[in-house]
Amino acid sequence: MTASRNDIEAAWTRLDAAPATPDDDSPELTEADFARGTWRIGGTPVGEAEGRAAAAAAARPRGRPPRSGGKQHLNLRVDHDVVAAYRATGPGWQGRMNDALRKAIGL
Which of 39, 59, 58 is nearest to 49 (CA)? Predict the structure, then answer.
């Protein structure tokens, strides 16, 4: 026998509305419980300091950190030969172009 979509949605609504109460099967953990625990990384036991460091590293946001005085995205039309000359200088050509613009306006 299959339940209708309305029955399932009603059941989820009742579950969401029910208060969360602790029971004997899942008592609240105490500091003593955590003190008895073992830090593990990939299933291998490690010391507390290493475990805390790994937990802190995992909690850090991913990606490149924001820079102070960051750059602004800009669409700029530049002659083909100018772009080709900068690209020919290799990786970092956009930074060198930025440096030349700064020098040209006296920054």
Answer: 39
Residue found under tokens 């475990």: 51
Cα separations in angstroms, 66 against 59, 62, 84, 97: 17, 11, 30, 22
Residues 43-89 pLDDT 10s: 889 888 888 888 888 887 888 877 777 788 889 999 999 999 999 99
Q: Where are the domains of the chain?
A: 75-107
Helices (H), 1-107: 5-17, 31-36, 48-59, 80-87, 93-104
pTM of the model: 0.38
Instruction: Give the span between the Cα atoms of 25 and 30, in whole angstroms.
Output: 15
The pLDDT, as a whole number, for residue 84 is 95
C-alpha–C-alpha distance, residues 106 and 49, integer Å: 51
Q: Is 45 helix (H, G, I), strand (E, B) or coil?
A: strand
